[in-house]
Structures are given as structure tokens and as C-alpha cells.
Specification:
Layout lengths: L4 E4 L6 E4 L9 E7 L4 E4 L4 E10 L3 E6 L10 E5 L4 E6 L8 E9 L2 E12 L23 H9 L5 H8 L4 H19 E3 L3 E2 L5 E7 L8 E5 L2 E2 L10 E6 L2 E6 L8 E7 L2 E8 L6 E3 L4 E4 L4 E7 L7 E4 L2 E2 L6 E5 L5 E6 L8 E7 L2 E10 L10 E2 L8 E2 L12 E3 L4 E4 L4 E7 L7 E4 L2 E2 L7 E6 L2 E6 L8 E7 L2 E10 L6 H7 L3 E4 L4 E6 L7 E6 L2 E2 L6 E5 L3 E6 L8 E9 L2 E12 L6 E9 L4 E6 L11 E8 L6 E5 L5 E4 L7 E10 L2 E2 L3 E2 L3 E2 L13 E5 L4 E4 L13 E8 L6 E2 L11 E4 L7 E10 L2 E2 L9 E2 L11 E8 L4 E6 L13 E8 L6 E2 L9 E4 L7 E10 L2 E2 L3 E2 L4 E2 L5 E5 L7 E5 L4 E10 ...
Parallel strand pairs: 4-10, 21-28, 32-39, 40-47, 75-82, 93-100
Antiparallel strand pairs: 1-2, 2-10, 3-5, 5-8, 6-9, 7-8, 9-10, 11-13, 12-13, 13-17, 14-15, 14-18, 16-17, 18-19, 20-22, 22-26, 23-24, 23-27, 25-26, 27-28, 29-30, 31-33, 33-37, 34-35, 34-38, 36-37, 38-39, 41-45, 42-43, 42-46, 44-45, 46-47, 48-49, 49-52, 50-51, 50-53, 53-54, 53-55, 53-56, 57-58, ...
Amino acid sequence: MPVRIKKKSRVPGVMITQYVEELPEGMATPDFTRKPISLTIQEGKVAIFRAVITGKPTPTVTWARNEGEIDDERWKMVHDTSSGEYQLQMPALTVDQADTYKCYAKNEYGIAVVTATLNIIEVCFVFFRRVDPEAKEEKKPEIDERFWELLMSADKKDYESICAQYGVTDFRGMLKKLSERKIEREQELCNLKPIELKDDGDAEFELEMSLKDPTSKIFIYKDGVMIPYDVDAEVKHGLKQVGKKFVFSINGVDPDDAGLYQVEVDGVKIFSTDFKLPPVEFLVKIQDVKAEEREDAVFECVISHPLKKINWTGKNVPLEQGDKYDIIVSEDMLIHTLVVKDCKLLDKGIYAAVTGQNCCNAWLIVEADAASSEPKQKVQAKEGEASVSNVRYFHLDPGVYFTGGLSDVTAIIGTDAELVCRLSSEDCDAVWYKDGNEVRMTTDDICIVKDGTYRKLIIKNCKEEDSGKYRCEADGRKTEAALSVEDPPRINADDLTEFIKPVIIKTGKDAAFKLSFVGREPMKIQWYNEGEELLEDTHIKIEKSSSHSRLLLTKCQRKTTGEIKIKIKNECGTTEAISQLVVLDKPTPPLGPVDIIESSAACIDFKWRTPKDNGGSPITDYILERQQIGRNSWKKLGKIGPEAKYRDTDVDHGRKYCYHIRAETDQGISEMMETDDIQAGTKAYPGPPSTPKIISAFKDCINLAWSAPTNTGGTNILGYNIEKRKNGSNLWGHVNPLDEPIREKKYAVKDVVEGFEYEFRVSAINISGAGEPSTPSEFVFARDPKKPPGKVTDLKVTDSTYSTLSLGWSKPTEEEGVKDEAKGYFVELRPAENPEWGRCNSNAIIMSSYTIMGLKSMAMYWVRVVATNEGGDGEPQELDNYIIAMPPPVRPQFTDKKMKNFVVMKAGNSARINFNFKASPIPAVKWLKDGHPVPKRVTVSNTDTSSQLMIPSSERHDTGIYTIIVKNLVGQETSSVEIRVTDDPKPPGPVELEENVSGTVTVSWTPSPDETKDDRLHYMITKHDSVKRNWQTVADHLFNNKFTVINIMPGREYKFRVYTKNDMGLSKPSESAIWEVKRKTGRFNKYDTPPSFSVPLKMHKSPESYECYMSCAVTGNPKPYVTWYRNNISLNTNTNYYITNTCGVCSMVILKVGPKDSGDYTVIAENTLGRVECSTKLVVEGKKTFK
């Protein structure tokens, strides 16, 4: 079953679909390493999409477009096998080729797709329309500038909602104007000049930017790939800023620099240009060179355009300046030289000079020099110049050559064309040829000019037969170029003047437009009305010929009014002409709703908007008629003039009126627009008074007061109405009778029930009536005032930190008629240095606990609590003493679970010791070294709960015992750590061997240089004999420089190594010379036997701290010498082990076994006849406990 697995490409924008679940080994789906980029190119130019594709097996590449097919006539698909690049080429762009293109890469394992857009800038002759000075400009309502700013930054999906918000209904006009504004903004952003190739071989282009954000990022791309740049002028690409001007430069242009350059600012590509280098030809090519071995060979060529550098290759390998090759360029950058120094037979081959697509090559032949093997003498050049041999230096005299070749010229038929080239000498004559035939000045239309080093061929009044390939020859050199004579569509100026005059007709009539033109056939003729192409139908007739075209519009309607454009196009270019068609008709109705300027008892003044379309003629009058609401008849008001407003003074106060409005022009009267009902003299009610304030409350009366409204409705306030509502009810009831308004701005409400809770609101009254009521007052109980509460009890501190304090208390006791119940509490705080109390909570709290925040560490404060209710605040209750902002006292304690007491550091490394502790109040921390304050070079960092000691670069004299003392008011705690600073030990000096007692050897050595610096330094000795052939430790933890090794057997060779050891580890060994004790020759005793074990060692398991006994039996004659080992380390000299050998029974006792005693134990018995060993294992178990 086929699968479709979506994969992610490394190149953004590439979509990959895999056809199989698992790819076979070595196979790969198609992918783009370089994708085609979107292009914006002028009509008539060349457009090329480039892509580099990978995949195995090699994918099949196809191209497609969204609209239409790709044919072989105008599109060319190319694959460059050398670079692996796939191209879609469009040689001469036309407008209809603008589209979205897709590139498909497909093999049997998947497909990759990428899209790119081609935008084409249309080239045409634009004729501006002529405006009739007598025509009145139609006034359009101005749109808020914020509307356009919103659209500039909004998504397209939000356009509709923004237009609805600002009342914009002309979507087509809005989009057109928005596009213009975006173009204006881009023009404000960047004023660009094309790339210019300078005489010194560099290239640059300028950008003038006014960026809103000075931090905007600027990127430059070449053929879709971002190129790095720097402000340094010596690098390949540079970008310098001077004010608002940015200059992008290319240092030392070479053929690889040609391509499409794009400038991007904040993700928007604002400029594109195609940089093309002029074709560089070889005026003098390199010649074959024959040189003897050890000589220098020179290749030299002359090119047609200055270049700082050309590419040299030798035997298909690029050549660079160095010890073997010198590359020289003349001051005018036209003569380029390659010097092959000190030629050898291997240098023989083909050498080539390459300038872009052109190249020339020659042979270097090297002959063997049998006469001498010494190098030929060379001429030593100055520093920076080529070192060239004085033998066989072939310098070519270029003679007269072209310093500037011909360039292709395109001319319009009937105009002049000029072909120009430049020679290196003024005296040389040039001969001109057209299509191989010599050109002579036989007519006045041909002119050959010699101007200094310039040679010109001027062809006047060009005709089509003048097109062809022209060549200029001088002194055997030549340069060629093509002249193309084009015949684009052209319009006679008088015909154009007549055409652009507006055509004005009445609706239902016919309109005709005719225009004559000349140009090369075939020509494509198109007519447009307001940008839409006109095609023949019942009301549109189009006549076309090779010299003119006529458009006939029959039975024209008002909507046909607008721009009439003709567009004529052939292979040489495009031209346009624009005229105007005005179709006159009666106007559309005026637009509503009306805006009321004034509506009073004396008049109604209102205005409206003009018709959306005046029918092509100005408004001469508006015709009005009026109807009083409630009546059937309409009163004619007549014509009021062209102004869209009316003031009606014949009205009755309080009546409502409706109006019909029609617009009149020379072409007729519009349909009527009917207004909404308009009332003469509308009522104005007063605004709401202020919120009623509760002055006092009793069980049978509540006193209120309020302020007058700020808006009185333009008349005097006649009085006020009061309403009340019980808590929990939705109904408002009137307090005063409606016909008896309250005159004053205060009132005593007596219609209340004791124990109920009420709220009140007030409304003002003027001549128009009662206005909106005020906002309700706060709820109030109908009861006599309460007594303030008493003091709180049991006030205490429950918790504290350096910035907070938690309090707790009990509510005060109640006494009927003296102290009522507390409804809330206020906590007050006073710093010790401030006599004023401040409240910690702005609103009373109902809880009997509170936490004060934001205290100053270790500061002293006084605290009190005040109980409150509706009767006021009670007496405050203070704490008995001041409090300090700190946690409860805690004696210093170290909190680290494992505290180090010994640290070894390598000299030069930094040492850090951390101690964590807890203490309250914050303790003082002090560090000592060996009982004295630490040196200044030691850094101590303290926090409230930790301390760190750091030695930045430790040295040996930093060794010592460091003590930390943590102390506060409650107590102190100390801890110590020994820091030992040492280094890798240096080996001891030479090792000497001496035999003082038979069967032993005394090993002595020169002390290590570190012995005096490190009191823990000691030595270890290992032994190697010719029988065992391995190294065994015979002594360890030696603090002197001498040791006697026993059990030295005759007839064996011994070597000894001495190591230095300290806390850092082991040094390199010092090795002794070979020590050998000669075997004594004597008579063999038949009773002599080699050693053997009659009873071997047994495996032992012993609990920790118990005694362990090991034994074995050894026989042999002469008596064997027995040595005990643990993990290959000799134990015979270790006092921790009790070793005996009685009558061949060898035993070893460990009095108190510890974990370090676990391991492999070996007994070795040796005599003159041999050696034997026996091994066992000791396992130490955990310590036993007894209940």
C-alpha cells in the first residue's frame, strides 16, 4: 500500500513527500540545496529560475506554472551537468508570463516541490489625461489618516472590519489608494542607484534610507544566497553608512560576481538588480612557450576591458600567487602576466587564462638541461614585484589594441544610432564592416568619426535594413557588436491631441473613439474602460487595421463614464493613449441621514449629503417639501439653491416634521430622499444629583444630604424626589409625594422600620420633568448609634522574620450599653525613632490575626491593635515591649550533612570551602588559619546562611588548618578543615645498590627535591627479578632514603625502582642498575630439595575487629625463605602483621581485622633450587552487634 510521509527540508519553503516507509541504504528522496527565488524584472529582459537538486537515484526535474502551459518557444529548460544546476530560462519577458512557477523533483522514493513568483514591470508610454478647467471638482468626504495607518499594518482579512469602523464603502477605490500609499512608503524608504562598474575594477551601488527604526537589519542577497559584508574596504563585500546614504561595494570584480543582487530590510525585499559584466575578450592571447629546465617561463595576454584579476590554470588546476607562480597585472589592468618560476619537467602542460566564459590556452614545453645541474641565474626583483629569470623571458608587444570594445545597440526606426569603440593609439585607422562588407560613407546617413582614441560609426535616420552585425578592425585587431533597429508602435502628436479630448454625450447616445498609428506588424490592439478590457458585444464595436483602430460604444449608460484607454503592442514595444468618456444623466438621490444643526421651538436647521453621482453636471437646485406628522398633506417648500442644507422657521414647538429632498441639474430631477421625523423644541431633562450621603441614623429616622446636578437641562431645578429600597428587595419606593418635590438638598427620612437596612437615591426635577436618579447611597441600618468596642485581649507575636511580623489576639469583651461587639480591627505600627502611629491595613479586618509585611531587618518597632465597629474605634492595645524584626533566636548550627575536614589541592588550582549554617540573629563569621586571621589574598564571601572561603591560586604555603567561627547573641559554633596544597611529586635521585649481608641488598637513593617541602612525602620500592618477570612492591611508606631488601637469591638478576609518593599520587620511578649474585659452584647434596607446600593456605572469612589466623606448611632443603604478600605488597616488614616460621609451619596473625585487610594473600617460598607460591583470599564481613 503506498504511503505519503511528509518530510522537512533543510531549505525553508520546500515540501518533500516520501513514498516508502523506510529508505534503502544509500538511497535518498529528492531535496533542494538551492531553491529558485522570486524575481521582479522589467518586461523584455531575461528571467532565469535556478535550482540545485540532490537525491539518489537522480531525480527527474520538471517545471510548471499556475495559469497556462509552458511551451518550448518562450520557455527553455536547461541542465548544467558541471554545476548540477537546473534552469528555467525566459529570454524576452512578456506581461502574460507573470505567474507563480513550481519546480518538481521526483524519483521512485519521493517528490520535492518548491514555488517561486515572477513579477514583471510593464514598460509603456503613459499619456496624462487633460482636465477640463471648467469642470467642478467633486468634493469627497475626507477619511481619517488613522484609517490608512491601520490598513498599512493590518492583514488583508481585517480590511473589511476596519472599513466598516470608519464608514468606507468604496472597496475598489480603497485598495487602489492603499497600493499607491505603499509605493510612496517604499520610495520614502529607499532611493537607489544601479550598480556601477568603476574604472579601478571595483563596483558599487548607493542606497539612501530613512528608516523609522535605526536598528533595522539590512541583508544583501546574491542569486538568493545571503552574502556577508563588513565596513572594512579591504574585504570582498563592504557596506558603509554616511548619514542616510549606504554604499555597497564589491572589491575587485571578477566574472563570478555577476548575478541578481537584492536588498532586504526587516524581511522585505525592496530592491533587485541584475549585475552583468561586459563581455571580456582576449585582444592578445597567450602563446606557446619553450623553456629549458630551471628557467622561468612567461605567459602574457591583453584583454578588452580592465579587470583586477583573471583566473589562471595549469593542467586544469587553479594557480595562485606564491613561491612557484607570479601573477602580474598592469596599471591599466589590461595586460595580465603569469610567470612560472624555476621550470621543471613536471611543469610541462597546457596553461590557460580565463575571463568568465572566454578563455585562451597555450603549451609550456620544458627541455631537460643536461649541461648543468645548478639553477640558472635569476634577476632578483624588488619586494612586491615578480622575480623573473633573465633567460627566455618572452615579453609580448601587444601593439595597437582595443581598450574598449563595441557594445550592442538598439535604435528605433527613424532615429540615429552610434557604435563606439576605443583604441590604445590615436594614430591607427579603423575599418568598419557590416555583415562582412566594408562600410563606406556613400550617403549622408553614414558618418565615420575619428575622435582621438575613439572610433565612431554614426547611422542617421535608421531603417530596418541597417540592422546587422558590425565589426571594427584596426591593426589586425577587431571588435564586433550587433545593431537592432526596432519599429515600436507610434502615434502622431496631432492625432494624439485630438484623441485625448473628452467625449461628452447624453445617456442612451453613441460614443466613438478613433486613433491612427504606425509600427511593425503584427500589432496587438486592446481597448479598456476604467482598466477593464472591452470585448465586442451588442453595445461594443471595435475596428482594427494596421494603421488605425476605432471603438464604437452604443446606447451608453451613466456607468460607462470613465477612462477610455487604447493599448498598442508589438514585438518592439508598447504604447498607450488615454481619453475620457462623460455620459450625462439625471443625478441620483441626495444621501441621508440628515444632520440636525438646530432643533428648537423657533426653527429646524439641518443638512444632508450631496448625491453619490451628480450625473455629470453640477447641482443647480434642491427641491424640498414638508409634512407635519399626523397630517396627510405635503407642503411644497420650492427650490432652495445648490447648497445641501435648509433652515425651516415656520414650525410649531413640540411638533414633528418629515421632509422630501430632490436634486436638480441641467439633465433632470433626481428621485426623492425622505428624512426621519424631526421634532421642533425637544425637552431637556436634568442630570443626576450626587450620591446621597448618610449624615446620621436612628431607629426611627435617617438623615440624608446631596449636591445639585451639574447638568440642569438649561433651566432651573424645581426640586428633588427621594426613593428608598430595603436590602434584598428589587423595588424602589417613593419617600416624598410626587406632587410635593423636596426644595432643599437635605431630608430626614422617617418612614423606616427599626432593624432594617436601607439605601437611597435622588432625582432632580426641572420644567421638562424628573431626570435620571443618582447612584444609590451605601446601606444603613435604622437603629440608634452603637458604642465603640473595648480593648482586644491576649495580644501576642506568633511568628517573625527579618521583614515580617505575625500577630494574634482575642476579641474584646462586651458590656451592654458601654462596649458593643467589635466588627473589625486595625493594626498600627510605630518605628522606635518615629512618634507617629501608622495603620498597616486601610480597611478593617474581621480575622483575629494579621501579618505585617515590609519591615526593615533588625529594626525596632512598637505595635498595637485597635477594635472598631459602627460606633467608632475602641482603645488601642499595645504589646508590652518593643519587637525587633528578626526570626526567633537560634544558636548557630552547621547544616551540611557531610562536612569535609581534609582537602588536598594541587598547587596553582583554586581552593573553595563552603559551610552552610542556620542562626538567628544573623551571625558574624570569622575565618582563621592555624589560629591566625587568614591572609588578604584569601577571599571570604558570606550570606545569611552560608560562608565560602576561596584561595584564587593556591600555593604550598597555603597549607594549614582553616577554622570558621560562626557567632551571634545566642552562642557560637566552630568547624575546621585541613587544606594541604601540594603538587605532583618529583622522582628521587640516582639509586645505588650495596650488599652488606649475604642474601640481602641495601637500596639507597638521593632524596626527591620535594622532600623538604612536603612533610607527608614518602617512598615506595618495587622489585623485578629474572625469574618472575613482574614488578612487586617490597616496601612502602618509607620516610628515609635507604632500605634493605632480603631474600636475594643467587643466580638471578634484580632491578629496583624507587617512587616518590604524596597526597597527589605517584612520581615517575628512578631505576637502579641490574643486580646479580653469582651462584656458588659446589658439590650437589643428594638431600637437597626444592621448596613445596605440604599444607596450602585456606580461604578465610572474618568479622570486622576480630582476630584472623592464617597458616601453611613448607618443606625444602636448604631451608626456604618465606615472604608474605597482600595484593602483591610485601608484609614481612609491616608491624601490623605477626609473622612466624617454626619448623616449616608458616603462620600470620592479624590481631584486629579491618575493611582494609580484605584482599588476596600470597606466600612465596624460595631456596637455591627453586621457588613456589600459594594464595588465598580474606573476606572481611561487617561488624556484628549483640542484643
